[in-house]
Amino acid sequence: MMTLKTKDTKKKFGLRNLATICYETLQYLEETPCKFQSKEKIVEFREAVKKFNLSNSECFMMANDPPTSPLHIQILVEDSEERLTEEQVSELLRIVEQTLLS
């Protein structure tokens, strides 16, 4: 009988932990630019940046942490100095602002 009580207690405690983690994650996301994003906006962003030949991981990083400066793009895009011109960086920032930050 004691074993059943222990298992039941662990299960309830585990569910409380899961609820806490979910709550804290949602609270964190509400304080980031992610609160403006939707599936449609991310799809729109992916379509708009196809011409830049960004990798999937680079696109995901931009969606998770939308760049707001050329330096931020340099951090997120591997070899950005060789792959992107200044005009392309400016256009990419404009696309991010219009799709992910609005």
TrEMBL record:
Where is the chain membrane-spanning?
none
Instruction: State the Pfam families in the record.
Output: RNA_pol_Rpb4
The record's section on Gene3D superfamilies has: 1.20.1250.40
> Which Gene Ontology cellular component annotation is one that this UniProt entry carries?
RNA polymerase III complex
GO MF term set = nucleotide binding
What GO biological process, any one, is recorded here?
A: transcription initiation at RNA polymerase III promoter
Keyword field contains DNA repair: no
| Function of the molecule | DNA-dependent RNA polymerase catalyzes the transcription of DNA into RNA using the four ribonucleoside triphosphates as substrates. Specific peripheric component of RNA polymerase III (Pol III) which synthesizes small non-coding RNAs including 5S rRNA, snRNAs, tRNAs and miRNAs from at least 500 distinct genomic loci. With POLR3H/RPC8 forms a mobile stalk that protrudes from Pol III core and functions primarily in transcription initiation. Pol III plays a key role in sensing and limiting infection by intracellular bacteria and DNA viruses. Accessory protein for the calcitonin gene-related peptide (CGRP) receptor. It modulates CGRP responsiveness in a variety of tissues.
Name of the protein: DNA-directed RNA polymerase III subunit RPC9
Q: Which organism is it from?
A: Phlebotomus papatasi
